[in-house]
Amino acid sequence: QVQLVESGGGSVQAGDSLRLSCAASGGTISWYAMGWFRRAPGKEREFVAAITGSGGSTYYTASVKGRFTISRDNAKNTGYLQMNTLKPEDTAVYYCAAVATLGFNSIFTTAAEYNLWGQGTQVTVSS
Questions:
Q1: Where in the chain does DSSP place strands (E)?
Q2: Which residues pair with 50 in a beta bridge?
Q3: What is the pLDDT along the chain (127 residues), one digit of tens a residue?
């Protein structure tokens, strides 16, 4: 069973950058679509970004488009979320998620479509 572990969270100032990593173990993630979600204090979990198994297609929620970049390195069995120009409203626990797919070009944007989740990493952005 593939397991996911996030890292790279922390406390930063507005305008700073962070790169989150999602390391997979127990199997190869090449056949898995991946996504990032976040849960801010007092709010529902929300979709942030998604990427196909091949890495060829990505999708972002509007509030992070142009600031965040999702990527993956299948050789390293790791996914990434590069977050630039961070804002206080980006403060949340960030979760990576994955789901096995039959093809390299599937992309998923809702939490219900994923069946593997990491434990989350805290990102705090102060003004």
A1: 3-7, 10-13, 18-25, 32-39, 45-51, 58-60, 68-73, 78-83, 92-100, 116-117, 121-126
A2: 35, 59
A3: 899 999 999 999 999 999 999 999 998 888 899 999 999 999 999 999 999 988 889 999 999 999 999 999 999 999 999 999 999 999 999 999 999 987 778 899 999 999 999 999 999 999 9
As a dihedral over the C-alpha atoms of residue 96, residue 118, residue 105, residue 101, rounded to 10 degrees, the angle is: -160
3-state secondary structure of 118: coil
Rounded CA-CA distance 52/92 in Å is 24
